[in-house]
Structure formats: structure tokens, C-alpha cells
Description:
Elements: H1 3-8, E1 18-22, E2 25-29, E3 35-36, H2 39-61, H3 77-80, H4 87-118, H5 122-136, H6 150-185, E4 208-209, E5 221-222, H7 235-251, H8 256-275, H9 286-293, H10 301-318, H11 324-367, E6 378-379, E7 409-410, H12 436-442, H13 445-482, H14 490-493
Antiparallel strand pairs: 1-2, 2-3, 4-5, 6-7
Amino acid sequence: VHSSQFMEFAEVENHDDFHTCEDGYIHTQDQRGAYIVYDVALEDLKELENQLLLVASQYIEKDKSNVTCGKSSGSNILEWAHAFVDRFAVLFDLWTCETALLEKKCQLLDVYFEAYQHALDPEERFALAQAITDIMHKRPRFDLELEYFVNTYKDECICLQLHLQLLRDIVNQQIDVQREYIHKIWRKGQKGGINEFGLPYNVITKQLISLNTSCRTSKNIYLLEFHPSLGLVCSIPKALECIYQEFYSICRPRTASRAIKLEKQVLQLVLDEWLTMEKPEFFYSSQIQKDLFAEVLIEDPVLMQEIALSLLEVGADQERKEGKERQFFILDSFSMLLELITLRHRLIEVATESAQLASLYKAFAVEAGFGEFHLHLRPVHFETALHKEKADLMPPMFITSLLEDDSCVDRYIPSSLPLSIQEIDSHLGKFSFRTRDGVMQLLCPSGIKNMQLILACQVVQKNALLAAVQQAFFCYLVQFTHSLDIKVSNTLLLQLHY
Length: 498
């Protein structure tokens, strides 16, 4: 049911209900301030109690394997009744483990709920609500082959904790980036007028508040501070589930405990990669970092607004336009500027993926017996090629026979990763988004076409690298078909980026 439709239901009486947390206990109050408990919560509690009793009974009965029954029917009646098993200790352990699990789930839910309160897009809100619901109904994956359930709960809590650390760091970093962006927009103050239409609202930095009453899960925010981009957090659980399913299909754990340990390893690797991840521009040369990745000009909306207005002034000085012609000229100018910004964004995205794939390609090449130069192989120019006897013979069947042959390929290792267009044409690869003049040179039909060509070359290179990496990765799939252990090599785990 849509949220606006939900508010229209006359029979719904809990519109203004709220909850508070005191000493770790959650209290729900209605609009009059009376403490209440929902009937659904009581039903869930009853169902949870039944599940815990079943789990406790199952592990109490596992003591039956140590019972040896004699010929007399009543000789070992106490053993068969498990009278020596401390049922209170089992229930206490079960209750303690379940409480710890619920606390971890609450902490994780608080972060998703904070992102939900920032989200404005209906689809993102629905996706976040679904993620919250899935976490609420997630239960431990008990392995009935184990002697006890404590390790199962421990591993599940570790998985939730790793998920929480990853999500919290992503949300905090996104809030910092958004605050920096908003400060960049309103650094000269808010003057009002039509020129400020469409810009995000300024943040009044007076009073910090916490959206959570239980515990602070992310950064404190200011009153009326909203970051709609946090709605994209809904894609994180989908990505984690997709990665886990990929490794599950490869490793094929036979028991629930191994499946939990596999998920724990995957989450730990994702967290480590996130915390130690380098910026994508570091893979490329300093010149490319300045010309493509620099955010001094192209990421500043105020400066881009000035460039757009200057573009209109230049067009107006060159040719007088009135009526519809002027409107079409303004529309074409702004469309060209938006196209250029979009092309740069897509080029950065594809270049980042190419850099990650290039590192995987080098790792697979080293394992296959090739050097790092294998990624940068290029044909030798005809002017510098050496004469070779018996060139009309059939080429070798395997590329391994060319490992020591330098006459066909040029083996070089650049100091940094170049863009794809720079390996083909050195002239088209010269562009700059760092200076005003460089952007103005690209704001023309020929400049847009050149950027489209640069992007197309980079996409082709990325797809070629992806095909090569997937082909090499197939060897690991064959290997893991015969070996079902959950221990995965470091090169295989690098696939987590994709």
C-alpha cells in the first residue's frame, strides 16, 4: 500500500504512534502517550518462543548419541530422558544468543531506517522498506550436525556486524560528500532569485540532532538537513546478495555452517576492499588526473552556470537571434553542456571499471606465466620490424610459444594506465575539463563527437578486458567444481568488485 493511501484509511489509528528507548528497552506510545503493545508484536513473540523451544529441544536430544541402552527397559531411563542436561542453562544460552542477534539486527535496521527517512524517490523507499523487512525476518541458519548452537549465533552476529560497519561507513562518507557539495554551492550565500531554482537547499548549521533514539548509528545531522542520494543505499543489500550467490554457486557449501562462514568471508572481504580502496584516478597518470578526474571546475555548479551563461553571450554576439530561434539556441546550448557533463561522468565510470579489470587481467596473466607487459602488448611498427626467415610458415598453435619471441610484439610496461584512445590517437586524447578554456573548446559539435568517440573506445576496451577476465575466471569455476572447500584464492576474491 502506498504511504499516501495508507494515511487515507479511516480505520487506521496508529498514525501518530512513536517509540522511545530507555536502558535498552523499546517502549511504544500512542498519540495520547499511553504505553501500548501491538497484537502483531505479541504474535511474533509467541512464534519466536515456539521456534526457540524447538531449537532447544533439538540440541537437547542430540545428547542421545551418548546414551547406551541396556537390556532392562528401565536401566537407562534417566539417560533417555536427558535428565542430566541442564535445561535452564540451554534456555539461558539460547536467550542470550537470540538477544545479541536481535540487538545486531536493530543496529543494522537503524542505519537503513535513517536512509529511508532521507529518500524521496518512491521506488527507493519501497526498496529500502523491503530490505528492512528482510532483515527483520532473517533467522539463524542452524546446522543440525553441530553439537551446539552458540557458534551459529556467533557467526550470524559477525555477519550482521560486518554488514553494519560497511553500511555505516558508506552512509557517513556520502553525508560528508553531500555536505561538501552543498557548501560549494552556497559558499557565497543565498541571495534568492530564479538563478537558484533547482539547487539543493542550504543547510542551516545551528542544531545537530540524531534520528535514532536508541543509539547513534551514523553522523548527527542538522534540523531540516536532507540528502536524497542516501536512497541509493537500497542497492547495497542487492549487491551483497548477488555477490554471495556467485560465491555460493562456486563453492557449493554442503552445510549451513559452511554457508554462514562463506558469507562471513565475503562480507569481511567487501569491508576490507571498501576501507582500503584507492581512488580510481590513482591508476592513471597525473595529467589524466588533472584533465579528466579533477573536480575544481566541472563539479562546481556555480562555475558551470557561469560557463553556460558565457556560452549564450558568445552565441548572441556572433549572430542576432529572436523568437523561436533564440529559444532553440538556448535549448541546444544547455543540451550540449549537459551532454558534455554526462559524457565525462560515463567516461570516468568506464575508466574506473577498466582500471579494476586491468588489475585482474594482470593477476591472471602472471598466474598463466606471462608478465605484466601482456596487458599492454601492441604490434611492432613496420618501420622498426626485423626481417624474419620463413615468415610464410604456419603460425604457432599456442601463444606460449611466443613468450620469448620479441619480433612480433612490442613489450613495454607504461608507468601508469593510459586511456584507450591514447593508444590509438594521441591528438584526440588531448582534452581537459580542468580549465575554462578546455571546457569551452569541447562545447561544440566537433568536441562532443570527439568525446563520444573517446567514450566508445574506452567501452570497447572495458568489454575486451571483461571478456578476457571472464574467460580466465572459467578455470577457477572448473577447479571449484571438483573442490568444494570454501577457501577461495585471493585472485578469485578480487572478482568482488564486479
